[in-house]
Specification:
By secondary structure, the chain is α/β, with parallel strands linked by helices. Helices cover 48% and strands 15% of the residues.
């Protein structure tokens, strides 16, 4: 379960108009734990930077003059993301720019080397319809510290996105891992039984009253924010 949280900064909003990537930042996570491996490069775009983009990220063309071109780092970048799931906020924007850069080098699109792309903006809109779901809003909603984010920066935004993603998906991954472990335990138990060895006893942990109360409160919040579309509650009522 290898995931790369990725962000880019660019010279403008439209790669179809010739705008280029000027910064790439990515952090690696395995099994919901950051590994301290990261990829970060500033890039010389060989073109001007729009004033609007400069106001967002603060990266000047003078600063980028001695930086490498995308072609210089493409192989290293692809090695870093190869085989991983990419997790990006507003993925269509970053993937569009990455594929445009790769196309200039006659290289295959990014999804040819990655295990897939997950868009956390789409995920957030599904979880919180009708609300602001930009990265700052999600940080406030999930209690993630973004005080260092005075300007957009690819590596910092990738690190913050990793924290936001863990908060957004808390409970889901642990449930999946528990189910996988249960399946593995059952297979091992069956194999032992077939070999004439006794099965080990299963330990069942019941939720406490406080845990049940917290669970009920969370379901109430989900029911409210989803405007009555909490699937868990619908399953309990049989509707």
């Amino acid at each position: 379960m290898r995931q790369i949280f990725l962000d880019t900064e660019t010279t403008g909003l439209e790669h179809k108009l010739g705008h280029r990537i000027i910064e790439i930042g990515g952090v690696e996570m395995r099994n919901r734990r950051l590994t301290n491996r990261h990829f970060h490069r500033y890039l010389n775009p060989e073109r001007d930077i729009d004033a609007g983009a400069l106001a967002v990220h603060g990266i000047s063309l003078d600063f980028l003059q001695d930086k490498p071109h995308f072609a210089d780092i493409a192989a290293e970048f692809l090695d870093f993301v190869r085989g991983a799931e990419l997790i990006i906020h507003n993925a269509a924007f970053d993937i569009g720019f990455l594929n445009a850069e790769l196309a200039l080098l006659d290289m295959a699109p990014i999804d040819a080397v990655c295990h897939g792309v997950l868009d956390t903006l789409r995920m957030a809109k599904d979880l919180h319809p009708g609300k602001k779901n930009n990265l700052n809003a999600l940080c406030e909603r999930y209690g993630v510290d973004n005080s260092r984010r005075t300007l957009h920066g690819a590596l910092l935004d990738a690190e913050i996105l990793a924290e936001v993603y863990v908060a957004m998906t808390r409970g889901q991954e642990s449930l999946i891992m528990d189910l996988a472990n249960d399946t593995t335990d059952q297979q091992t138990s069956d194999e032992l039984a077939q070999a004439g060895r006794p099965r080990r006893s299963q330990c069942i942990l019941r939720a406490s009253a406080d845990e049940l109360a917290e669970h009920a409160a969370l379901l109430t919040t989900i029911q409210k924010e989803s405007k009555g579309n909490c699937l868990w509650l619908a399953g309990e009522t049989g509707s």
